[in-house]
Design a protein that fits this description.
By secondary structure, the protein is an alpha+beta fold. It has a domain of 166 residues: Glutaredoxin (3-Layer(aba) Sandwich), CATH 3.40.30.10. A five-stranded mixed β-sheet has the order 1-3-2-4-5, with helices on both faces. It is globular.
């Protein structure tokens, strides 16, 4: 950089010019870019984005078929069916499983308490954490509305999860999913709705449906049939289990 002649005659002026230019460059580099100045913290990378959900998904996100399971975390039939359906989904990558809460009034308040715990686990940890919480609840609850044993606490409770439990966010999700079930006439657990992404058709099944019957129902759905099984007669008692399902 060539200094003006008066600066060469007065070295301190040249030094002042150099320092001023250096400060100006430092301020320019430090200033935020206009395109990122108003970017949310999560997008800028200072905070991890929240997990996508609910509804919470188990299995391949790109699967053609979805089993939407309406379940109560105090329902003994749901508890027995949970590991069976999980194994079946693991063996059939063309089908995924979407959870919908349906706490039954006969199991309150424990049913909603369990649903809130699972929902907050998912909110703070994502899909895998949600399913882990459901498995823990089914393994530890006494069922039929009795809830968890006195003094037993969820082992992975974090401050973020506690903050969720102290809010009304999980209640809004549970109410919305229960209302959706009521709109479709679902009042018993477990209940399954099969969905075909390609055709948009759905098929409603009641009770813990066995794997072979699920495959037959998926074949019917893919062929364009949408026959609905008869609803269960008791809020948590399946009607003939899979007796009236297509074979």
């Amino acid at each position: 950089m060539r200094l003006p002649s008066f600066a060469r005659r007065h070295p301190w002026i040249g030094l002042l010019i150099v320092v001023t230019i250096a400060v100006a460059w430092w301020m320019l580099l430090r200033a935020p870019h206009p395109a990122t100045e108003s970017m949310p913290l999560a997008a800028a990378g200072s905070e991890a984005p929240k997990p996508a959900g609910p509804p919470w998904l188990y299995g391949r996100a790109d699967a053609r078929f979805t089993v939407v399971g309406y379940a109560d975390l105090e329902c003994p039939y749901c508890r027995a069916y949970f590991p069976e359906l999980k194994r079946w989904i693991d063996a059939h990558p063309e089908v995924n499983w979407q959870w919908h809460h349906l706490p039954l009034s006969m199991h309150e308040p424990a049913a909603t308490a369990g649903a809130r715990l699972a929902e907050c686990a998912g909110e703070t940890g994502g899909h895998a954490t949600f399913w882990q919480a459901v498995a823990w609840l089914y393994s530890n609850t006494r069922g039929d509305g009795q809830g968890l044993p006195e003094g037993l606490r969820y082992p992975d409770l974090t401050p973020a999860m506690q903050g969720c439990l102290d809010s009304d966010r999980p209640d809004a999700v549970i109410r919305a999913q229960s209302a959706e079930a009521a709109q479709q006439g679902i009042a018993a657990t477990p209940a399954l709705q099969l969905r075909d992404r390609e055709s948009g058709k759905t098929l409603l099944l009641h009770g813990p449906v066995e794997g072979d019957a699920l495959l037959s129902a998926i074949d019917l759905l893919a062929a364009g049939n949408t026959t609905v099984a008869e609803p269960a007669h008791s809020p948590d008692m399946p009607a003939g289990v899979a007796g009236d399902m297509p074979r």
